[in-house]
Specification:
By secondary structure, the protein is mainly α. It has one domain: Orthogonal Bundle (Hypothetical protein af1432). It is about 60% helix and about 0% strand.
């Protein structure tokens, strides 16, 4: 989580965001996987009904967002970013897309290190292009693995490629 928070902190500063916004971005990095190790059955009981159907390994995002909402966090964009950082969602704003990208580009991940480094090098200036490239790679992986493409991933892709 610290590596993702560091990426988000670096990118938010490079974007010359106000200090409070940089803190918010780093907080998203620190919190996004806070419940990742919790048992899926426990998380399933604590997420909104629409999220309860998600596969166990990705329930932690909606669970963290719901926990913070119940505890009084009212920042909708922040909560959406946490809830959808693993799959994507068409409602993700700049913070949500940056968290989606940072989680994928976490320097501690060992798969395809050269490609992922090239993507990190393009950040934050190419946030939209990098988000699109990662979403495409994730969808290709799901298709090649013969798994079901989650509806939010499809809707996220469609939102990314839709002309403005």
């Amino acid at each position: 989580m610290a590596r993702v928070a560091d990426l988000l902190g670096t990118w938010s500063k490079a974007m010359a965001l106000p200090e409070a916004e940089c803190t918010r971005w780093r907080a998203a990095g620190y919190l996004h996987d806070a419940l990742r190790e919790a048992p899926p059955a426990l998380l399933r009981a604590k997420v909104p009904p629409g999220a309860a159907v998600l596969p166990g390994p990705i329930l932690h995002g909606p669970a963290v967002a719901e926990r913070l909402r119940v505890d009084g966090v009212l920042d909708g964009e922040f909560l959406q970013a946490l809830a959808h950082h693993t799959v994507g969602h068409p409602s993700l704003g700049r913070l949500g897309r940056a968290l989606y990208v940072a989680d994928f580009l976490d320097p501690g991940r060992e798969f395809q290190p050269e490609w992922r480094q090239r993507l990190r090098d393009r950040m934050p200036d190419a946030l939209n292009a990098v988000t699109l490239e990662i979403a495409g790679a994730r969808i290709r992986h799901v298709v090649e693995s013969g798994m079901e493409i989650l509806p939010d991933a499809v809707r996220f892709w469609n939102a990314l490629v839709k002309p403005s």
